[in-house]
């Protein structure tokens, strides 16, 4: 009897398991998040796909190629090339991190880095301060405000190479407009681009002239997004202009400020055309920043492609680290972006 009962119980259990298995096989599997996104937003993916492909071709492949070259000893003499019908194969080899060790242990790198940091901090600080001041002025009601805005935006609209050539002419020691004005005022001429100190001040001034309009436009947009009722309520409560600026304007511009300061830092850190076209990195190499020296390594003298690639990778890593630190600092302050 017990055996019969056990056999019946086992048969029922097997049937139940078989039914559950059949139901499991008949039930469709849940799609993963990627597949679900592709099925629901296929049109958006189709529109983005060409941009992704072009970006990968124009940025991804050169980046991978540059990282690879930085780990070799590739120079103009060891790179493969074709001369007429003769094909000369490449003879460079893998050297690992030797290029990075050579760069980071040289005093040249740290000299360039210090000047690049000074150049970036000075330019971005002046960009932000002057841009915010001009935005505060243009945010008020005044006559011909649109004309002033147009005139102040013009430096930003001029291409960088055009601005560089204009200012190089203005700084010319013999027939430059600036020295002509100094002579007319009874002062002596200044060799703006002949002395390391004046050359550094000259390129900073040009970059500030070019970059302030962007900051001004961004700050002006941020000011116009702050509700006017806040200023009216603060004025009714007896707040001074400085208190209104400190407790309303500055917090209201925090998100805009954090974004434009980061963008301005990245752009200024890599501002190649102004320095290269105005001073060529000179006199000597006193105004040369990291990116201009990397260019010099790759395209002047005996072209050191591997060394230039290593400089470029180091610059990229510096900017990535700086952006991550900056983003983390903003998160601690409660900013989300």
From TrEMBL:
The keyword Membrane applies. The chain crosses the membrane at residues 42-64, 113-138, 150-171, 201-223, 253-278, 309-326. Residues 24-33 have a biased composition (Basic residues). Residues 1-34 are annotated as: Disordered. It comes from the Bacteria. Residues 1-11 have a biased composition (Low complexity). It is a multi-pass membrane protein. Residues 113-326 form the ABC transmembrane type-1 domain. The keyword Membrane applies. SUPFAM superfamilies: MetI-like (SSF161098). Gene3D superfamilies: MetI-like (1.10.3720.10). Its main location: membrane. Keywords: Cell membrane, Membrane, Transmembrane, Transmembrane helix, Transport. GO terms for biological process: transmembrane transport. Coiled coil: none annotated. GO terms for cellular component: plasma membrane. It is found in: Cell membrane. Belongs to the binding-protein-dependent transport system permease family. PANTHER family: ARABINOOLIGOSACCHARIDES TRANSPORT SYSTEM PERMEASE PROTEIN ARAP, BLL4140 PROTEIN. This is Arabinogalactan oligomer / maltooligosaccharide transport system permease protein.
């Amino acid at each position: 009897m017990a055996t019969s009962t056990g056999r019946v119980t086992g048969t029922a259990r097997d049937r139940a398991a078989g039914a559950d298995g059949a139901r499991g096989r008949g039930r469709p599997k849940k799609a993963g998040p990627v597949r679900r996104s592709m099925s629901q937003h296929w049109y958006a993916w189709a529109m983005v796909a060409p941009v992704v492909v072009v970006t990968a071709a124009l940025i991804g492949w050169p980046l991978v190629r540059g990282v690879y070259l930085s780990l070799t000893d590739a120079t103009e003499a060891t790179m493969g090339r074709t001369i007429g019908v003769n094909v000369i194969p490449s003879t460079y080899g893998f050297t690992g991190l030797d290029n990075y060790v050579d760069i980071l242990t040289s005093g040249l790198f740290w000299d360039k880095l210090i000047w690049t940091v000074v150049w970036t901090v000075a330019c971005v600080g002046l960009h932000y301060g002057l841009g915010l001041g001009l935005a505060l002025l243009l945010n008020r009601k005044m006559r011909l405000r649109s004309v002033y805005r147009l005139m102040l935006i013009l430096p930003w609209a001029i291409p960088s190479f055009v601005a560089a050539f204009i200012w190089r002419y203005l700084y010319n020691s013999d027939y430059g407009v600036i020295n002509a004005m100094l002579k007319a005022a009874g002062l002596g001429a200044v060799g703006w681009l002949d002395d390391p100190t004046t050359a550094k001040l000259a390129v900073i001034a040009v970059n500030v002239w070019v970059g302030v309009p962007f900051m001004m436009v961004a700050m002006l947009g941020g000011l116009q997004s702050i509700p006017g009722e806040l200023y009216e309520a603060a004025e009714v409560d007896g707040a001074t202009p400085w208190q209104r600026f400190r407790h309303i304007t500055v917090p209201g511009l925090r998100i805009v400020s954090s974004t434009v300061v980061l963008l301005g830092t990245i752009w200024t850190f890599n501002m190649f055309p102004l320095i290269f076209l105005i001073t060529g990195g000179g006199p000597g190499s006193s105004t040369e920043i990291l990116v201009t020296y990397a260019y010099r390594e790759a395209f002047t003298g005996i072209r050191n492609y591997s060394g230039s690639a290593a400089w470029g990778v180091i610059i990229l890593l510096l900017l990535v680290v700086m952006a991550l630190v900056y983003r983390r600092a903003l998160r601690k302050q409660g900013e989300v972006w």
